[in-house]
Write a structure and sequence with these properties.
Blueprint (H helix, E strand, L loop, with lengths): L1 E5 L2 H18 L4 E4 L6 H14 L7 E4 L1 E3 L10 H10 L9 E2 L8 H14 L5 E5 L20 E4 L2 H7 L12 E4 L2 H5 L3 E6 L5 H9 L17 E6 L9 H9 L9
Parallel strand pairs: 1-10, 2-3, 2-6, 3-5, 6-9, 9-10
Antiparallel strand pairs: 4-8, 7-8
Length: about 260
């Protein structure tokens, strides 16, 4: 786990964008895992700019999204299909046939989840997985207590997560109780993970993920066992870490060949 702390979310998101761009340039047929929510928005904006101004080409890229609400149609304003369309897909040239998002209206959810896992396998596995971190330490929608070996499946959301996500729904609208999400075992098979967390509200979850014990009660902590994870934080999200000075010293003194710049 490499901990990268920058003063602002904008700066951390730009480093993340450079890492994604490097992946796509070095392997134009990369398989990229995508996250939703407010955390990766700046990253997607930067990738869109790089596509427009630098010619970053996504035409060979395949994408798999982490999750989707059960019961929401793709056109619903709070669906992750809609989020991805508005925040990334309509701004870059990933071919439509290479875009994969769980189907919240699937008639046979277990069969759909098995097919999603098979599609990832047939694509060659995920080269780079973008992740956010829930305020309780969840990854994707793997809530605290999720199996550390879990695969893509249906999950029931906690009331805390539903409350956190209510801002994306209209007043009085019910946040769904269920989602389809990649499992922790699926995420851990990604060749590289980029975990982004910003703001004071994520500080305790970040500390538990990075410096706490590995436990199903903090799903993000499983990334301590991943061979290649970069954690990108702003100063507020890093504020509860005990070894901030060390993480910053390491990042500032990396060999040139390891530079993210």
């Amino acid at each position: 786990m490499e901990i990268i702390i920058l003063p602002t979310a904008e700066e951390a998101s730009e480093v993340a964008a450079r890492l994604v761009a490097r992946q796509v340039r070095e392997n134009p047929r990369s398989v990229v895992g995508l996250a939703t929510g407010s955390t990766p928005c700046r990253l997607y904006q930067s990738l869109a700019r790089k596509h427009t101004s630098e010619g970053l080409d996504f035409s060979g890229v395949t994408s798999f999204n982490l999750d989707e609400y059960v019961g929401l149609a793709p056109e619903h304003p709070a669906s992750y299909h809609r989020f991805m369309e508005e925040n990334l897909f309509c701004h870059v040239n990933i071919p439509r046939e290479r875009i994969h998002i769980p189907d919240g209206l699937a008639g046979d959810i277990p069969a759909h989840c098995a097919a999603y896992e098979q599609a990832i396998l047939e694509a060659g596995g995920i080269d780079l997985q973008i992740l956010g971190l829930g305020s309780d330490g969840h990854l994707g929608f793997n809530e605290p207590g999720s199996s550390l070996a879990s695969r893509t499946r249906i999950k029931t959301l906690t009331e805390r997560t539903r409350s956190d996500n209510a801002r994306f729904f209209t007043a009085g609208e019910q946040v769904p109780h269920h989602v389809i999400t990649m499992g922790l075992g699926t995420i851990m098979e990604s060749r590289m993970c980029l975990l982004l967390a910003f703001g004071k509200g994520k500080a305790d979850a970040v500390a538990a993920t990075v410096e706490g014990p590995v436990t199903a009660n903090v799903p993000g902590s499983l990334l301590q066992f991943h061979p290649r994870t970069k954690v990108l934080l702003d100063a507020e999200a890093a504020s509860a870490l005990a070894r901030t000075d060390y993480y910053q010293w390491v990042y500032q003194n990396k060999p040139v060949w390891q530079s993210d710049l």
